[in-house]
Design goal:
233 residues, alpha/beta, Rossmann fold, 6-stranded mixed β-sheet, 8 strands, 23% strand
């Protein structure tokens, strides 16, 4: 686990975006941990979150050769995340990989007056990175891919904060939601951190304080975990 990923887990815990306890996931599973970017609800925390997104994107550009021209944030959480990432990229010196890029987002319903249409912000063009919080069933990302392609642009990656790396459902498939999306669209999913990083964090930084939670998360992974990692940066 890189320092960047370890720092993100510390940051998420401090902001209570990552919490341990008894939770029910969207899939109806009882989970010993929960991740929610909605808990980053101040200017400082959203600014710091944007920096983590930006640094993950810069790492993918340097290490994987990712090329992109702009960002797209699916409504609703993705709107704030795309804006925060764009601002963070602009604040990072060019020699460190920062640059000024445009961003756009969609409305859930098209306006019929004034600034009409579903899309807001920079014109969708070139190579686009979709920025969101997590990928659960992939519905909003699929909609985003369709919107971007319909505008004549090319979606080249999805950037999310946390990958739970668990099977999408109980249908028998061993793929995670991230793996399913990547296989369907051929578009990589980049993550600031994932379940492997969380388990590595338990073994080092969180060993003493979170031992009981580490056992519960390990048991959850054993029951619901996908066969192999899905995504990463």
């Amino acid at each position: 686990m890189t320092n960047h990923r370890r720092q993100f887990i510390d940051f998420a815990l401090k902001g209570q975006a990552l919490a341990f306890g008894d939770f029910t996931t969207k899939a109806g599973r009882k989970s010993p941990y929960f991740f929610n970017t909605g808990r980053f609800d101040s200017g400082a925390s959203v600014g710091e979150l944007g920096r983590f997104y930006a640094m993950t994107l810069i790492a993918a550009e340097r290490e994987q050769g990712l090329r992109y021209d702009m960002l797209f944030g699916p409504a609703y959480k993705g709107i704030t995340l795309a804006a925060a990432t764009a601002m963070a990229l602009a604040a990072i010196p060019a020699v460190e990989g920062g640059r000024d890029v445009g961003f756009a987002y969609n409305r859930k319903e098209a306006k019929t007056h004034g600034d009409t249409g579903l899309l807001v912000g920079a014109r969708l063009a070139g190579r686009v990175v979709i920025v969101d919080d997590v990928l659960t069933d992939g519905a909003s990302k699929r909609e985003s891919v369709d919107l971007i392609r319909a505008a004549g642009a090319e979606p080249v990656a999805v950037l999310i904060a946390m990958d739970r790396m668990e099977r999408k459902d109980d249908s028998g498939s061993r793929r995670s939601a991230v793996q399913t999306f990547e296989a369907e669209y051929g578009i990589p999913v980049l993550t600031i951190a994932d379940l492997n990083d969380l388990m590595a964090w338990f073994e080092s930084d969180g060993a003493a304080t979170y031992a009981l939670h580490a056992d519960a998360v390990a048991a959850y992974r054993e029951r619901y975990g996908a066969d192999v990692a899905g995504g990463g940066a």
